[in-house]
Amino acid sequence: MQLHVLQDLRRKLGSLSEYELKEERVVAGDLVLRDVSGTVSLLRTDRGLLATIDATAKLEESCARCLAGVLAQVDVRFQEEYVPLMEADTSARIYLAEDDEAFRIDTEYWLDLREGLRQYILMSEPSKPLCRDDCAGLCPVCGADLNAGPCSCQPETDERWDALAGLKQEMDEGK
């Protein structure tokens, strides 16, 4: 997920370049992405390159109920400016304000999309991914996977309901 952008930085302002994204596996910080595909457009600006990313990926996550591995489909669309650390024509160092939060293009002119992808995926990922819609989850007592079948735990009862349970049993026997 890195692009060598020296030639893009040497183009005139307003020049546009397009690249195809296609990666089987991308590690972006603490996220692991599979089957990343899409496009990135680079627009030459007065400071660097404005990257417009439109991609889809599968994110390795855990089911919110049973903790099984899940590949969640995520769509990522964002636009960020990437600023070089070195001037493309002269290799002179470019000094940026410390509070400038723009993404950087390193001294070898590699634009790394992974951190931008990571940040925008964290904002768009499913809040509670499920392995399937009817996932039964884990038993809160013994931790057994209830998708595989019921566990052997006895259901906990609240003794305050015993009188009603006895009444229900009498009504059922009276049928």
General description of the model:
The chain is an alpha+beta fold and 175 residues long. The protein folds into 2 domains: 2-124, no CATH class; 136-175, no CATH class. 15% of the residues lie in helices and 38% in strands. The strands form 2 sheets. The chain has a 5-stranded mixed beta sheet. A two-stranded antiparallel ribbon has the order 1-7. A hairpin with a 6-residue loop joins strand 4 and strand 5. It is rod-shaped and about 95 Å long. The model has no long low-confidence stretch (mean pLDDT 88).
Task: Name its key features.
about 180 residues; alpha+beta; single chain; 7 strands; two-stranded antiparallel sheet
Summarize the structure.
With 175 residues, the protein is an alpha+beta fold. Helix content is 15%, strand content 38%.
Question: Mean pLDDT, rounded to whole units?
Answer: 88
Overall number of domains? 2
Extract low-pLDDT stretches: none
* Helix and strand element order: EHEEEEEEHH
Q: From the helix content, strand content and strand pairing, which structural class follows?
A: alpha+beta
Helix and strand arrangement:
Blueprint: E1 2-4, H1 6-9, E2 16-28, E3 31-44, E4 49-62, E5 69-84, E6 103-105, E7 110-112, H2 114-124, H3 162-173
